[in-house]
């Protein structure tokens, strides 16, 4: 069997990727145990948002990896679960994971409404108090900006709404996390 230059490159790229994927999670896990990324020095895991309306998610941390899917929703919150050089492994609100180039992510905090039942409308309150007026009822998947969170309530706003929502009804803030 003759090996062409192109197929040899593909084989080498595959081997390099396999080595990177075998080694990188171990290095990241060790850094994650300390609570910071091995590359950025920032907390792992942490929430960020998509900076672009077109973000390729790859199977591994390099451009030779196949694009598994493409996000088309700017501002969507994702959780960084690992770092390798300029790549970040992310997880979305539905649990899907893949690798994204770091410059496609933003430190801006956003969140998505995640009701307990898909058909449920989640109340948005006038203040951080269940007895305050309900200013809106939000359906699953509504995207908004996190203005602040006190560990129980988040100030949450988007197109046509602004108010307070229970923190456990959002993907984009950890339980009991304080966001300024």
How many DSSP E strands? 15
Fraction in beta strands: 35-45%
| H/E topology pattern | HEEEEEEEEEEEEEEE
Low-confidence region ranges: 3-34
Q: What form results from the Cα inertia axes?
A: elongated
List the total number of helices.
1
CATH level 1 name of the largest domain: Mainly Beta
- What average pLDDT do the residues reach? 86
Number of domains: 2
CATH level-four homologous superfamily name of the largest domain:
SH3 Domains
Quaternary organisation: single chain
In the CATH classification, which architecture of the largest domain applies?
Roll
Determine the N-to-C terminus distance. 62 Å
Q: Helical proportion?
A: 10-25%
Structural class: alpha+beta
Reported for the largest beta sheet, the result is: 6 strands, antiparallel
List keywords for this structure.
1 helix, SH3 type barrels, elongated, disordered N terminus, about 180 residues, 6-stranded antiparallel sheet, alpha+beta, 15 strands, about 15% helix
Task: Give a structural overview.
- The structure is a single chain.
- This protein has 180 residues and is α+β, with helices and mostly antiparallel strands.
- It has 2 domains: 5-108, SH3 Domains (SH3 type barrels, Roll); 111-179, SH3 type barrels (Roll), CATH 2.30.30.
- Helices cover 17% and strands 39% of the residues.
- The protein is elongated.
- The model is unreliable at 3-34 (pLDDT under 50).
């Amino acid at each position: 069997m003759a090996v062409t230059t192109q197929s040899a490159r593909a084989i080498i790229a595959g081997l390099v990727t396999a080595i990177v994927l075998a080694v990188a999670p171990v290095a990241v896990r060790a850094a994650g145990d300390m609570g910071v990324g091995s590359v950025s020095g920032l907390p792992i895991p942490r929430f960020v948002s998509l900076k672009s309306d077109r973000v390729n998610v790859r199977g591994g941390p390099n451009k030779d990896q196949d694009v598994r899917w493409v996000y088309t929703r700017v501002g969507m919150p994702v959780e960084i679960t690992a770092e390798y050089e300029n790549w970040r492994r992310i997880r979305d609100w539905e649990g899907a994971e893949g690798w994204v180039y770091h410059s496609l992510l933003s430190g801006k905090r956003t969140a998505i409404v995640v009701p307990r039942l898909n058909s449920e409308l989640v109340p948005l309150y006038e203040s951080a108090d269940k007895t305050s007026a309900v200013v809106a009822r939000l359906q699953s998947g509504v995207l908004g900006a996190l203005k602040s969170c006190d560990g129980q309530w988040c100030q949450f706003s988007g197109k046509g709404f602004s108010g307070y929502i229970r923190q456990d009804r959002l993907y984009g803030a950890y339980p009991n996390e304080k966001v300024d």
